[in-house]
Write a structure and sequence with these properties.
Elements: H1 2-16, E1 19-25, E2 35-38, H2 44-52, E3 56-60, H3 69-75, E4 79-81, H4 86-101, E5 106-108, H5 125-133, E6 137-144, H6 147-150, H7 158-167, E7 172-178, H8 189-207, H9 212-226
Parallel strand pairs: 1-7, 2-5, 2-6, 3-4, 3-5
Antiparallel strand pairs: 6-7
Helix pairs in contact: 1-2, 5-8
Length: about 230
């Protein structure tokens, strides 16, 4: 089933007509086991990461209801969580510990959900699990050139979001993979969390496209210099 899920993700990427670009910003080899984390601006994130990596994802409970994807995700051992339930969060955390003990890699979105193109503060969970198990974190940063089309907006449902992905003129997506980060370098999970979040803030500044207001400001300044 995990192989089927990865095949499904690759097939759906091709169906959408997308062109993923992989940027290997790390010194090989990657560790045999890791906790993969990523920013989460789009539903497309699920497809790209699960196509590229053999991981057991931690996903919000609503994904289980998605047509076909939910069934396959459940069969592959995806850990589902109701984020507004403390008991569910604790059970999901224990399931992640169990998956690690069995030798699996896990995928956690440290923002705790899909909140758009701009980063929101990271939750402690992934860093606590890494710190307690000694398993390194593999950081991935996802960038979409068609930010408006790929972003999962507050008003979007699954069908509307897929339609935006399919009709996006710019097909280029970028997956930046960086060096693993080892928990032994940090005194506690909170220091670990703060450090990794600062890396992501720097990557966002580096890779994120300019906002409309910023573009207008740049164009105005350029025109003024020319005059």
């Amino acid at each position: 089933m995990p192989k089927l899920f990865r095949l499904f993700c690759w097939s759906f990427i091709r169906f959408l007509g997308k062109s993923p670009h992989i940027h290997e910003n790390f010194a090989p080899p990657l560790p045999k086991q890791y906790i993969l984390i990523s920013n989460h601006p789009s539903g497309y994130d699920l497809l790209m990461i699960n196509a590229l990596f053999s991981v057991k994802p931690l996903a919000q409970a609503g994904v289980r209801k998605w047509f076909l994807v939910g069934r396959i995700a459940e069969a592959t051992g995806t850990v589902f969580v109701h984020r507004d339930s403390k008991d569910s969060r604790n059970a999901a955390k224990e399931a992640c510990f169990d998956a690690i003990k069995k030798g699996h890699n896990i995928l956690i979105y440290p923002e705790g959900g899909c909140y758009g193109r701009d980063l929101t503060p990271f939750k402690l969970g992934a860093f606590d699990i890494s710190h307690r198990t000694g398993i390194p974190i593999l950081p991935v940063y996802l960038q979409y050139e068609a930010e408006n089309a790929y972003e999962w907006g507050w008003e979007d449902n699954l069908v509307k979001h897929l339609f935006k992905l399919m009709t996006a003129i710019n097909k280029h997506t970028h997956c930046h993979i960086f060096n693993p980060i080892h928990p032994q370098n940090f005194t506690d999970a909170k220091a670990y969390q703060d450090y990794v979040f600062s890396l992501y803030k720097n990557w966002q500044q580096r890779f994120k496209l300019l906002d409309v207001e910023e573009n207008e400001s740049v164009n105005y300044q350029s025109t003024a210099l020319q005059n």
